[in-house]
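Predict the assembly for these two chains.
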Amino acid sequence: MTPRRQRMLTVALVLVGVGLAVGLTLQAFQENLLYFYSPTQALAGEPPEGRKFRLGGLVEEGSMSRQPGELKVSFVVSDLEQSLPVTYEGVLPDLFREGQGVVAHGYMEPDGTFRAEEVLAKHDENYMAPEVAELLAEQGHPVKEQAAN
Amino acid sequence: MWTWFHKLASPPHFYRLAGLIGPWLLWPSLLLLAVGTYGGLVLAPADYQQGDGFRIIYVHVPSAYLSTTIYAVLAVASAIGLIWRIKLAHAVAAAAAPIGASFTAVALISGALWGKPMWGTYWEWDPRLTSELILLFIYFGYMSLRASFEDLNQADRASGLLAVIGVVNLPIIHYSGMWWSSLHQGPSLKTLDAPSISGDMLWPLLLLIAASTLFFGALLLSRVRAEVLDREQNSRWIQDLFGDSAGAG
């Protein structure tokens, strides 16, 4: 084997080795790396009990209600199979709207509602002018929402 | 078959060639930058949900794209340098690192500025954001490892190996949105599918991606020339090039 081939092999082996190690590590941490839980997972008791976790899903259409003169809001987060009522007190991000994806950080109350301490809007990858969005909606093709993944 | 390769790897030849090609990358890139910026900031309509805030895409996407592309260039150059013992390849990698780190920083900062109003937070320990931050640290690690060696050959070899190992992070950045549930949206530009961004918003973005890629090329060539001058300062051809005044020190 020429020295050059040997060096080529060394570089390749180092890369494969490190790749394998990182891959296995990520595989092992898969559960901890889960960025958010869906309502179905939350209701099945997957998040560790008594600890804060993130809940992700779509804000159900028509579910949002706000107390007049207060920052308290409540809405329902669903993954199109199960849904979970959420309460939150604070300023909502610009992209928060019904039918859009949302990630809430908080904990389960004993009464089965999710109390959010932070609410983040999850944006989809569609970019278009407002006129185009309106036109699509008029023609009965509203912008396809990304299902909570 | 390999003569062109070896000729390219010879520092005097590369130095001259890079000096010739450089301006041919720089000027088109500045032209595309001007047209793309006008198109993105003036001609493109506001987004149906994000309003004018979406325009940060014109800074964020080109720099995020380049942050990983430049790393790929750096790693391939390092591998070539390690395997074939070509010093010029290490010079290319060393010259690319600060450019890549800068684009990574721009991608992270522009993303944070967009994230605050849109998502509701500057930063989240989200898979995509975290892996991009790790990329920045790998660039920093590469540069500081190089700087810590007195001997150039040792610096080339050690940092080259680090660069090759760091490649593992690239697929993680790319697929982080798919492998884990992430706050970051999916890609609007896809290799196989139609883009999910409308045409009047898309063309300035494509121009700006091309502009920044060309700009990177021009910057890289001029930085490699400087790197070559530094490495070869005592060699005969540089003294011939600059007369007796240069190369003495």
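Residues 3-28 of chain A form the longest helix (26 residues). Chain A touches chain B at residues 4, 7-8, 11, 14-15, 18-19, 22, 26, 33-36, 56, 91-97, 103, 118-134, 143, 146, 148-149 (CB under 8 Å).
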